[in-house]
Structure formats: structure tokens, C-alpha cells
């Protein structure tokens, strides 16, 4: 019995360090701490930098007994392992009241201060959906949090590559000060990926702000830029063309009905940027901006558009028609469009033929997602064209809206279609098609 025990111990004792680190990688913090008590070698494995390079710290926005431990464990982690950190994501989920936002602000002050002193490796910081314009953020708490974050970004600006403050909802001045903090030491920033979607408060016409243009001109190595259409202007496109054409390859643009989007952009500005940045891909995401006049003003033929998403969010307008967009506007991108997402309530018009012709005309289209009032026959025709090599989809997701509570007949027809094309679907497609009652 004693010999067996010695043999079992020796197996673990001679386990290669890389294997031991891999075992620790699968453990949560509590189990790692317990395992570190086993022996000196396991304790050393606990401090392997590879275990602590990536971290997501989540704070619940609801009052509970676990709140205190969440805040304490976050500080404990940063004090002990913050020096190894390279990728940090912080989540604060739907704060319920000012007491919790205050506790979050105090914790973040300590966390950012400690991290700023001990860390020189951080390359990615993500803090999304703070919604600092909500009433639960008292002015003094909000201002102090922004101040702490600015100080931290000034320290980290020289080596921070990725920054996402999506959904922060700050003022123009606060937002520009936050972004300017990345270029504090050198008057220019070499961050390559910035996500400022929903970064500014609602209804702001950022596109007309010289302060915003001056701020964006400090970025000299952007590869991926994500922002709202209310930030886009000829001046911004010229700035990107002058300072980032060598590196820029993706611009993600969200256009929401509540954000200003009536500015005029010249096609020449897009054409110049596309010429200077030949690898550039532009992805548009529209929410409730569905009318042809608005879309035609935004979707200029010179844009190197690779992906477009048009979502009406179940809203229906009998005076609105999708046909002009499907037949006149989107076909302009038939040689370059790769991803198409359409979610709209077209209960007042049939669009099967227009949708099918659009898909067939887009020779590079590989991703298709449609939620709309369609006939089941649309799915069969699309699969038949796929089988004949007339389209080259790799993903096909269709939700067929119906005005009936029961979808038994549609379900039966879809099952029959699936059986007939099962070999094609299994070999070529990420396929998901259902009938959905819209009552």
C-alpha cells in the first residue's frame, strides 16, 4: 500500500511544468488557490504568468450578498496577478441603484490604480455598456469614475492596442478627453483597434465637431474602427485617409434611428479612402433606418461594403417599402457584398422574388440571414439554386414570419425540404430555418 502511494505521488511529482500549468488553466480561482497549498512546486505553478494573461471581471448590478465578494475578489486578483495581465474585460451588469454604482466606482479606482502601478503588459481593455447617462450614475460618481479611467489610460496609452468603451454614453467633451488620454505621452496613439459604438450620448451630432476630428487625428495605426454613423463626416474620412490608410482594414458603422444621420457625405471622400486603403472593408448595421431615401443618402456606391444588416426591430410601417432598396440600392454592391442580414416586418408586401434575385446577383455572398414574411417555397428555390451552383452560401438562416398561431403546415413543408436537400445541407451549409408566428 505504501509503495502504491509513493508511485502515485511520483507521477504527480514528475509531471512536466507545462502539463501542470495546463491543469491549473482549467481550474477556477478558488480551486487554484487550494491546489497551490499542495506543495511548493504547485504553488509556483499558481504564479505562472500564462494563467493570468486574460481576465473577465464581472460585477452584478443587483443588490445581493455576493456583491461584496465580487468587489473584493477583483481587487485580490489585481494585487496578486495584475502584473501578468494582457487582456482585461470588465462587466458591470445593469446597475440597479446609486449605492452599487458608488461601490463599483470605488472598486475601479483601486483596481485601476493598482494595475497602473504594477502592469506594463496590458494590450487590450474592454469596458462595455456602462450607460453613464442613466440616473443611477450620480454626477459626482460618474465624474470620478471617468477621471480615474482617464488617469489609467494615460499610463497605459503607450502599449494599449485595443480599447472598447462601447455603450459608455458620455458627453462629447468627456469622450474626446478619454480618447485623447491614449496619446497623452507622445501626442499620438498607435492603438490599432478602437470600439466607440454608442460611446457618446444619444442625439449628438458628433460629425460636426472639430474637437472630435482633432481627437481622431492623433490615431496613427488604426486597423479596426467601430463607431456610429453620427460620427462620420468628410473630415473624418480625410483624417483616416491621411493618417491610417496604411493600416486600416475594417470600419464597422452602426446607424440608429435616434442618432442624427442626415449629414451629407461625398462619394469622393469614400473613394479616396478606398483607394488609399485597398484592403478596407466597411460593415454597416442599420437599426430602424429602413426608408429608401435615408439609406440612399448613406449607402453610396463608392463604399467598399462587405456586410450590411438592416433591422426594423418588428416595427411595421404601411407607407414604407423595401423593394427599392432590394432592387435598386443593394445590387450596387453585388460584386463585393459577402454578408447580408435582413430583419423586417413586410406584412404589407411580398418580397420573395426580389430577395431571391438579390442573393443570386451577389456572387461573393456567403452569409445570409433573413427574418421576414416569406413563403416556404422561397427556401426551396434558394436551396435549388445552391445545388445548381448559382449561389455559394455557407450560412443560411431564415425565419419565416406567419400571421397564424399554428405553424404545423409550414413545419411539415420545411421538414420535407430538409429531407430532399439533406446531403447538400450537411455538406455545405450552416443551416437554420423555422416558421415563426408574428401575432
From TrEMBL:
Cross-referenced CDD domains: F-box_FBXO39
Domain (F-box): residue spans on this chain: 9-55
InterPro entries per the UniProt record, alphabetical: F-box-like_dom_sf (IPR036047), F-box_dom (IPR001810), LRR_dom_sf (IPR032675)
Xref: PROSITE patterns: FBOX
Gene Ontology annotations of biological process type: positive regulation of protein ubiquitination
Name by which UniProt lists this protein: F-box domain-containing protein
